Amino acid sequence: MMALAWVLISEGLHNEDFVQRYTVGYARFRDYLLGHVDGQPKDPQWAAALTDIPAQQIVDLARRMASKRTMINVAYSLQRSIHGEQPFWMTVTLAALLGQIGLPGGGFGLGYGCMNNTGSGRKAFSGPRFSQGSNPVKDFIPVARVTDMLLNPGTPFDYNGQQQTYPDIRLVYWAGGNIFHHHQDLNRLLEAWQRPQTIIVHEQFWTAQARYADIVLPATTALERNDIGSSASDRFMIAMQQAIAPVGESRDDYSILAGLAERLGVAQAFTEGRDAQAWLYFIYDESRQRAETFGITLPDFEQFWRDGLLEIDYPQTDNVLLKSFRDDPDAHPLPTPSGRIEIFSERIAGFAYADCPGHPVWLDKPAPTHALHLLSNQPKTRLHSQYDHGSYSRSSKTQAREPLTLNPLDAQMRGLVDGDVAKVFNERGRFWPA
User: Residue ranges of region Disordered (predicted)?
Assistant: First the structure.
């Protein structure tokens, strides 16, 4: 992307008017890109040596992008790597140089194709939902630092240029999710997970998190309780009616929490006199009233529950990313200090982070110490670790292990054939797929 930007600027193909009106910090980045700062122009020859993409192909692509309406789409996964901020900052910078941000079919997109709602309309009103309320606790940690927090209570840490302090966590109450699925360095996490005095989880299955909890409260699945299915980009609203009785001692999450509230002497304050079905009625009726303000009439709850499915007729409207900002950047500023697209950020530069300076930069990754690179994609028979015990999930496995796909030449060099169980390892850990 930097080489594409180099071509745009060097050949005068960038949109100078857009850059001047909608961005800040362009000159600082331009000097870096052209090599005035470090003596290395980020030109197509430089990029070709890094990427194995022929330099002329990069030049041709830049010219094509400047000659037509161009939308740059970047996968989410690029962030999950060392220096993962840089590709996204550079994506926005490249789109700004083209000057098509805020135009239909132009600008940039993130993660298009990983979900099925791209291009679909959105409801004018929000569906049935609980208010999130206001959390009186303002302290937080990044999601990937749970282990660091538990192992280092009272220790300061940096986050976005600010120093904060890890709290001393004595009790963990976890409803929904499985930290042993999404956290890194599981052996270190397992050590940290012993530090709290008590760990309580709501769980439907005997997951790793349930095994390492002190108290497990069995929770129902969606098949064992009533609920309402709805999303902002879906024209349907579904009455998710209980299909089977709760299995064993399981209870729905609301019933669990209401029972705890009763033991704590705050049942009325928590339930407000409503059971789970009464709350479904209440939040549906709230959504029905919100719909009325947009001229949309929904049936009453009883009819909705009898019909089981509601199709909402609402107008399809174009949703162009940053259109209002492009139309009037003063009236619709971005949530940045300047209100503009910050190609160079004084605030981020002020953090003095070596791995994230004040504008997009090329930062070399560490030299590989092993011959293979592991990509951990989503398994095709489930989402994350959900329903891993089920027959469909297990149908994709070999010898009850996750399948590992390897180039036949790489497999032959290691004496591996289909069906073998192999140890995959580096200095951080190991696992055994098939």
Answer: 383-402
